[in-house]
Fold Carboxypeptidase.
Amino acid sequence: MYHILFLLSYLLSVTLAQYPPVSNLTTITSPFDANITISFKSPRTDTCKTAFDTQQQYTGWVHIPGTYPTNTFFWFFGAREPTEQLTIWLNGGPGASSMIGLFTENGPCQVVELAAGKLGTIVRDWGWDRGSNLLYIDQPNQVGFSYDTPTNCSLDLLTSSLYTPEQVHPSSQPADTFLNGTFSSLNMSNTANTTETAGMAIWHMLQGFLGAFPEFGPTNSSIMGVHLFAESYGGKYGPAFATIWEEQNLRRLNGSIPRNATVEIKLVSLGIVNGCVDDLVQAPFYPAMAVNNTYGLTAINPTRAEAATGSFYSSGGCRAQINQCRTAVANQDPGNSGDVSVVNSICSNAYTFCNEYVVQPYNDAGRNVYDIAHFLPDPFPPSTYLEYLNTPSVQSAIGSQLNYTQTNQQVVSAFTSTGDYERQALIPDIAALLRAGVRVGFIYGDRDYICNWLGGEAISLAVAAQTSPAYASFFPAAGYAPIIVNTTYIGGAVRQYGNLSFSRIYDAGHSVPAYQPETAFQVFARIMTGTSLSTGATIDLSAYGTTGPVNSTYTNSLPASPSATCWLRNIPETCNSDQKNMIIHNQGVIINGVLYSASSDWSSIASSATPTAAGGASVTVTATEVLTGFFTATSTPTPSKKSFGASSFRMNLNLLVLPILGALASSSFLS
């Protein structure tokens, strides 16, 4: 009975959300391209609570013509203090929504439980709007709130599967786990299938966005500067998209495309957060991370790890197949369009082999690929935001016709079919960006497995080697300096020379800002502003290099793994077998999308817990000096080993009983 009562408002939020009415959208035509239109609105300020009510906020879609409809969703936030900085954030996947980053990592707000059956948002102290205007984009087409054609579908929450046309509710399945809603068409042909095609779509999207919001574009006397930060599969998106922007800029200059009908997108910095950039460099570090990490964890049998390493180097192994793939792309599909079947087959087979024999042996450990400290299922970051974004009031506030899902399996399938994961050698692109004066920062949490810091460090060294003789010499020689976050805390170690930096963030998993929000913000701000990654001090980048040990050798112990918290909207990723059985047999109660054995379990937790922001800071802080500004160190703190982040992370885990942060992408790829 309780189960039914507490689910009532939840069911209404989904079953009544088919083709939800769109209200108060303003639609304009791009001044640069009459074929592109932009529909947008300013949502209620409490939809995503910002530090100051004066901060601008827009949600909307850029409608781009083509062989299929492309309606790309964006959520824009003005900075807490006036600034000309514009940061674009992209989650990865492929197929992962950037709402993951907005609501669980670095956006202005986070979702909290206000009461039984009531969710809301509060200000995130270390949101990146503290230093920049922010633009979150759901891409490629059909991801998150982006869509081709609104389509009525059925959603099976037990498997996170979508079906169209709508299916008859299975008689053996609880009603609350099989829902009707509005989503994209689920047509795999109506989205990008390679990073290259996704990148061109985003270039067109930005042309439309900047046409609608010229105040964030170039003026007569200056060229707009953009900062692109991308996570996970963003290790591919970031360099590829940035390269496309640079190429389009050159085409504007040489007249290949009209200058008066386009906008120059001048990239100032590129940040890659736990990015998977290139398996040729990073893949050997999967077995290494599994058995030889800085936490003393031997996750799998060393013999199994040796076999995985052998699968990379052996004749006909992972390395050989990647090279074969790239040769085929260069010879038969140089534009990376993904429409040459023989090339797709070679590259897809390479990805499948590398994934199965080099990456997946770690699965023996039963631990999360996003955090070696956590056994599966992993409740961190929490999935509360999934429930929030599927409430009618929120969908109405942002003007969405669609229900929300955090990962699109059609995009996953499209990218898998072309073997996109292995197609591009992106290190030369990153090196070219450095030579063009773009700042490049690699940021890696040291508890991530799937895009681990050992491989990330190797990528940074490979980039330096291909950039110039100076970078090839001075970047590896630069020592690791402490990342001084505040007067008492060292958040990691950084190697920096010139415009290139590599930051190892202590006690952080895949989604670094969710684990270490203050550290992540300070590193972001220092990359964006071109200051010392170690201290935040103003430096001469042409002559600056960090000093310290040549290797980052800091070690720590793993914290205890948290117990499972089961979210109805993320059953496959967050619920253990007992919890799944409870749901299947209609047992327990669902409150704010979370399964409890009894309603009293929620009441006792809610009455005894005080919501805190990620990292432990109070969510009720209102002092202006706390909500704005960067930190510049004048001395190096000497914290105990415990204060290097472990205690901060345990404080984050306390939030699991009153979840406020959100969820990682549920995907066979990356977030």
